[in-house]
Amino acid sequence: MSYRSRETESFAVGRPVAAFRAIEHQAENWLATLHAVPDLGSLRTLACDRLEAMGGEPAGRYAICIHPQWRLFFEWPLDQTGPSNVEIGADA
User: Fold this and answer.
1) 44: which residues sit within 8 A by CB, 6+ positions away?
2) For the segment 41-92, what is each residue's pLDDT rounded down to a tens digit?
3) Which of 4, 54, 71, 91 could form a disulfide with 85 if both were Cys (CB 3.0 to 4.6 A apart)?
4) What is the DSSP string of the chain?
């Protein structure tokens, strides 16, 4: 898995990130889930209504709502075996 931001990468390896303090548990759980699923179809089953495809380019961009104000953004193109450019970000 690759990360779009240093904060997300630091958080993913266990370093505390002040901005994510309020959502630590939810973010940890969703990052672990994203890391563990073998394919996007499995993630669709687990994330249910929390997973949404993002419009625009490039194709294959998704977001999972992890908190009313926070999302887990990532790309999963059809030719990849896992997610990339993972980032925890505030919902715009």
Assistant:
1) 51
2) 888 888 778 899 887 766 789 999 998 999 999 999 888 888 999 999 987 5
3) 4
4) --BSSHHHHHHHTT---GGGGGGHHHHHHHHHHHHH-SSHHHHHHHHGGGEEEPPSSSSSEEEEEEETTEEEEEE--TT-SS-EEEEEEE--
Report the first-to-last Cα separation within the chain, whole angstroms: 24
Burial class (CB in 10 A: 0-12, 13-18, 19+), 66: buried
* Least-confidence region, from 13-17, 18-22, 34-38, 47-51: 47-51
Pick from 1, 10, 12, 8: which is nearest to 37 by CA?
A: 1
Q: The domain at 6-90 falls in which architecture?
A: 2-Layer Sandwich (3.30)
